[in-house]
From TrEMBL:
GO terms for cellular component: voltage-gated potassium channel complex. SUPFAM superfamilies: NAD(P)-linked oxidoreductase. This is NADP-dependent oxidoreductase domain-containing protein. Pfam families: Aldo_ket_red. InterPro entries: K_chnl_volt-dep_bsu_KCNAB-rel, K_chnl_volt-dep_bsu_KCNAB3, NAD(P)_OxRdtase_dom_sf, NADP_OxRdtase_dom. Belongs to the shaker potassium channel beta subunit family. It comes from Takifugu bimaculatus. Signal peptide: none annotated. Residues 1-189 form the NADP-dependent oxidoreductase domain.
Length: 203
């Protein structure tokens, strides 16, 4: 760990980067890196790249908030649409042009056809109805849901064209509609709210 922190500090000292962060690290590993940086007067990580969406919540909502409040490490989250699962494109099967049909993504196709995947798709359909009620798209609602978490610094988007980018950016306008009662309704619909620390949201 000391070698990693020293190496990243060297990169920053050389002017090749301004900050550094981690990706898929455990909370304990991030805390260790921070402790090493403090002990040797080096540069600590400022963010963790973590998967975060409706069906992947534990790390961002249970394990990272403590680091956010203690040492200021934020989350740069990825896969807000769960590899396209939340867009609705898989409601009627796997389109030939979709990611799940591409070579190397057999794991995604298997996931969609699993019992868990079918249950998730059923919940996605209900979330689409909720998005219609809010007069936004399902991807916009899903991304806004990610942005609402206090410790989330940014959400990484994966788009194929300009239209998708503009649609996704529209999620910022949906944020104000995510009131506590609405989030509670979504939690009840999903049925997988992490148990433990209280979820922190932006006011």
């Amino acid at each position: 760990m000391e070698e990693v922190v020293r190496a990243m500090t060297c990169v920053i000292d050389e002017g090749l980067a301004m900050y550094w962060g981690t990706s898929r690290w455990k909370a304990a590993e991030i805390m260790e890196a921070y402790s090493v940086a403090r002990h040797f007067n080096l540069v600590p990580p400022v963010c963790e790249q973590a998967e975060y969406h409706y069906f992947q919540q534990d790390k961002v909502e249970l394990h990272l908030p403590e680091l956010y409040h203690k040492i200021g490490v934020g989350a740069m989250t990825w896969s807000p649409l769960a590899s396209g699962l939340l867009t609705g494109k898989y409601h009627k099967g796997v389109p030939d042009s979709s990611r799940a049909a591409m070579k190397g993504y057999s794991w995604l196709k298997e996931r969609l056809h699993s019992d868990e995947g079918k249950q998730q798709l059923s919940k996605v359909k209900e979330l689409h109805l909720l998005a219609e009620r809010l007069k936004c798209t399902a991807p916009q609602l899903a991304i806004a849901w990610c942005l609402r978490s206090e410790g989330v610094s940014s959400v990484l988007l994966g788009v194929s064209n300009k239209e998708q980018l503009m649609e996704n950016l529209g999620s910022i306008g949906v944020l104000t509609q995510l009131t506590p009662p609405l989030i509670a309704e979504m939690d009840a619909l999903l049925g997988n709210k992490p148990r433990g620390h209280k979820k922190a949201t932006r006011s």
